[in-house]
Structures
1.
Amino acid sequence: MKNEKVAHRLILFNGIYAITLLPYPFVLMMSLYMYAYSHSSDQELLEIITAGLMATYPIGVLFSFICWIFYHYGKYKWAMVIANLFLVWLVAFLIVVLIGDYIV
């Protein structure tokens, strides 16, 4: 390995993200059923944004695996940034959830 410390961090982050993909289909189906069952038109835009975020979850996880390309070329800082770019999705999701709780 070129840089063991960075490699171990990337393996940790990618491992955690990959493990979260296992229950994803179940969570997606639950959220889609809840979205279809909801009768509230008060938060229609918020529900659409939440459904869109849930549908794009695997894209963020799979995009985080690109970090190994940067690692291979010795750009360790960029590798760490790309590996943690998925956290932007998480922050957006938490903001939508908090806004939904605040409005209700």
2.
Amino acid sequence: MSSSDTVVPPKRQTFWARLGGFVFVAILLLAGPVLIGIGSSVTDSDEELARTGIHATGSIVDFADVRKASNRKITVEYMAADGLGYSTFASVDHDQHPVVGGDVTVIYSDSNPGKAVVVGYESSGVSVRGIGALFVLIFTVPLGVVLVVKGLRKNRRQRTT
């Protein structure tokens, strides 16, 4: 047998390399559910503010109309009961067409007038929750399929030997 015919055994991974791979996969698997939780919390907070806050009229001062739906935002300025001016932003759906200078209803917190929601526009939590769902679809579902297939192959090999 020549030296080119010899088979070199695969190099075993060190403990730290395996641990690093495990941590990386764990982070990818947990990122989606964590983002879904954060987005849901922000959305719930905004819904609570919309139910209990103080109504004011705001004016749209900027509309970023870009191709990516997640980046379409309006900036709204409003005057609170304390006499100070504040601004907030809201995500704009693809079928909404706000006009700069147009009036919108803003609902702000009595205890923190800088915290506000714009009626009729999405909460920023919706986008975060959507990104989390996308992470779940991209990472968790395919990884689960890979692990199931790998387990089935391992069981089949053990039965045949």
3.
Amino acid sequence: MMIVSSCRVLVLDPAASLPAPTRTVLVPGVSAEGPRHLAGPLLGLLIDIERRGLHTMLVAEQPADLHTPVAAICRFVVAADAETCAEARRIWGAHHVRMVSSTSRENVLRAARALPVPAARTVPRRAQAAVQRLRKAVMNRASRFRHPQEGMTGLPDD
């Protein structure tokens, strides 16, 4: 797993959890030994990625990389091959495909950095989520005093 803190990019690793600052998860295509099927820990990780509203970017080396169940869940594609880019644009649309001169680490990270901040990671959305968590915590705490546990009166002991 590789984390680049300056651009908050993570390379998919089904055995790891997602650190909080992650914005984009890079998914290697099957030609680069990336995942082929949605199963096991990978499925749970992909659900977490989706729940958080993060970007997923498929790193496609060949057109075959575009036609797997895992590729289908990716929001963006980065590729260097003209044939792969053309096929990706047909499937995802031109706005979601980034062409690079090679799929080197530097080029892929540059493409990932150029993506817009996911809506779930913007300041207003993060502030809204924090307020909701705080409101929930206050309500949970208040409900403990309204409904004391069995054997407790909520009054101080003598």
4.
Amino acid sequence: MTETRPALRRRFPWSRRTRPGVDLALAIPLFLLETGWVVLDAIYGAGLEVWAAQGEQARIDAAELAFMERLRVLQIAALVLVVLAAVFRARWTVIAHLLLALLLGGALAGERHEWEKSHSSPGCVRYSAGC
């Protein structure tokens, strides 16, 4: 009799769920590192650049725009990590990075709102009495 060998099982990343211990060991430090990165960038990246501008509005605007761009890039990087963690079925890493992406989205929306509020021209409102 010929003995048949069992077919080799391919191990795709999505074939089994990542162990919870490994998942949490990756999710928690990455979340803390990325959150700390944003806080330190806000303080030392944007804050000190605005302080060093000494009232020069062009340099202040450039620093604020650069900070908003860095927030957007970090949000995209967090969403890429969400996709990678979802492929590897790492539930807690997905949750942590989705939370981070939401926090970055809120911070970015706040920065853009503040930018538009400080840079809008007080023009004529269409139906006001003075127009």
